[in-house]
Amino acid sequence: MNAVVQEAYGSSGVLGVVDIERPDVGDAGVLVEVHAASVNALDWHMTRGMPFLLRLDEGIRAPKNRVRGVDLAGRVVAVGSKVARFKPGDEVFGGSNGSFAEYTVTTEDRLALKPRRLDFQGAAALHIGGLTALQGLRDRAGVQPGQRVLINGAGGGVGIYAVQVAKWLGAHVTAVTRTESVDMVRSIGADEVVDHRTNDFTRLAARFDVLFDLGGNRPLRQCCRVLARGGMLVVAGGPAGRWVEPAGRMLRAVLLSPLVPQRVVPFISKNDQASLATVAELAEAGAIRPVIDRVYPLREAPDAIAYVGSGRARGKVVIDVAGR
Questions:
Q1: Nearest Cα to 126, choosing from 30, 40, 205?
Q2: Alpha-carbon gap, residue 21 to 63, rounded angstroms
Q3: What is the CB neighbour count within 10 angstroms for residue 84?
Q4: What is the mean pLDDT of residues 26-53?
Q5: 14 near 43, Cβ under 8 Å?
Q6: Quick one: 89 exposed, middle or buried, by C-beta within 10 A (0-12, 13-18, 19+)?
Q7: What is the pLDDT at residue 247?
Q8: Cβ atoms within 10 Å, residue 151
Q9: 57-111: pLDDT as tens digits
Q10: 98: closest CA among 121, 125, 71?
Q11: DSSP string, 39-54
Q12: Distance between CA 73 and CA 32 in Å, rounded?
């Protein structure tokens, strides 16, 4: 089968589309024929091997898992003897360790049935973005109807879902994004949109109950200026540095929280079967919808990863695996 394989760390040039053996399903595995996959910032960070901190877990000189990609949508081909929730022929979406391939093996807790109203490309764009938005806003921030929510980084792969999830939760949403994404972010439901190239959102006169920070482009203390007393700053992302960032920003959030009249909390999403099922339900109901910037064939996956790494993507970038 064809797969996007990485043998070393570096630019997207270290990635190659090569023929490798199809993985075995195992007793607890689900073998999925991948129809589409989407690119996340994680794929770019893994390609570069930066921050260097991640190499302690992923491999010092090269990644332990050679096939890139996390998000997927496709059709179940085979299941292990211990798998109860899925059967061959089921159309699914979710995550795996190596989705930029014609076939991948994952576990049933990382999958959900594909929303019928979405095609495979749309469903492939849901996993990490949808989970991060749902868990960050509903579970970590506890957003309630009528609250004012500010989303920094609203035009990115997580931000597009954060805007829609916050609206679904009943919040008044102010979205911060780049000039090129202003109209798109407004079209998915933001009540107000701030162009961060012409306006510093940390100097807004309004006060917010929650700031969901995906951009990481302003100091945390400045971010707290726009929060009401008792409000919450959820630090859910930021640009990766050479050594430890964005982990350092997460640590600074913990250290800052006791010093300000707001709560400052780090957040990382987790694989959760119930949350993924909720994302599927929201997509099926039309409460959230993917926004796809570009679609690349599998052979151009290295270019897709480089494009996401450039920071220019608006919404999600998808790889059409079935189109070969």
A1: 40
A2: 18
A3: 8
A4: 92
A5: no
A6: exposed
A7: 75
A8: 37
A9: 888 888 989 999 999 999 999 999 999 999 999 999 999 999 999 999 999 999 9
A10: 71
A11: E-HHHHHHHHT-SGGG
A12: 8
Residue 97 CA, chain-centre distance (Å), reads: 14
- 239 pLDDT exceeds 60? yes
Give helix 127-134 / helix 159-168 axis angle, nearest 10°.
40
Write b or e for each residue in 166-205: b if 16 or more Cβ atoms lie within 10 A of its Cβ, otherwise e.
bbbbebbbbbbbbeebbebbbebbbeebbebeeeebbebe
Instruction: Name residues whose C-beta falls within 8 Å of residue 303's C-beta, 6 or more positions apart in sequence.
Output: 12, 296
The one-character DSSP state at 137 is: I
Q: pLDDT tens digits for 261-291? A: 999 999 999 999 999 999 999 999 999 999 9
DSSP label of 130: H
What tokens appear for 301 in the block?
A: 């996956």
> Alpha carbon of 42 to those of 61, 70, 145, 159: distances in Å?
18, 9, 32, 15
